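USER:
I wish I could look at a protein chain and see how it folds. I am handing you a single protein, as its sequence and its fold in token form. As I understand it, each token names a local backbone shape. I hope you can help me see how the letters and the tokens relate. The protein I mean follows directly.
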Amino acid sequence: MLGSGILKGLAVTAKNLIGSYHDPARMVTEQYPEERPKLPEAYRNFPFLVTENATDPMGTLRCVACQICEKECPPQCIYIEKSKDKKPDAVGKMQIYPTVFAIDTSVCMSCQLCVEVCPFDAIKMDHVFEVATSERFDALLLNREELAKPNTYFHAIRPTEAAEVDDRLAAERKAAEEKAKAAAAAKAAAPTKPAAPAPVAGVADPGPASPRPATNRPPGETGAAPGGPAP
């Protein structure tokens, strides 16, 4: 029948139009910002720094200022300065830490290379996308205090990855503790070195005997032959 395809298309359009008013599966429009979107775990916007303790974020940063992310960043938007002293890291090893850690989000391209190259799982990609400001420069340059977020927040936005990281760090802590215990046990079981005898009062220490130098006689020199009388 001529025009049947057009009628079928109009029927599908009318069905979708009517269903969008009463079918929950068809109600795809979110009333933002009243209704917040549920973002997938893999969503990424700008990086943030993971801390172990929310009450002491600067003292429990996982970052050890290795500067790998700063070197690998394609737009060079990360700036790090190392500390002069050390503090325990996530596995209890004494490490340096960043006194300055800044990210220029006006330049950041959200490529996630900093996350991929970090050997300490100290930097991750955030889900926050409402970052618009009225000031272009200083407001978009985030320092370490603004970047630091606790591990509980990491679990909230990326539970699968955060659980894997925690399991690995727990295994590393356990291995480090066992290694320290084994070293302490080996040191305790090692035989003690006997003390040197005390010198006798009034008697000088002769010291080690020096070897007598050998004398080499040139051929034809007069002298006693081996095993014979002197001439």
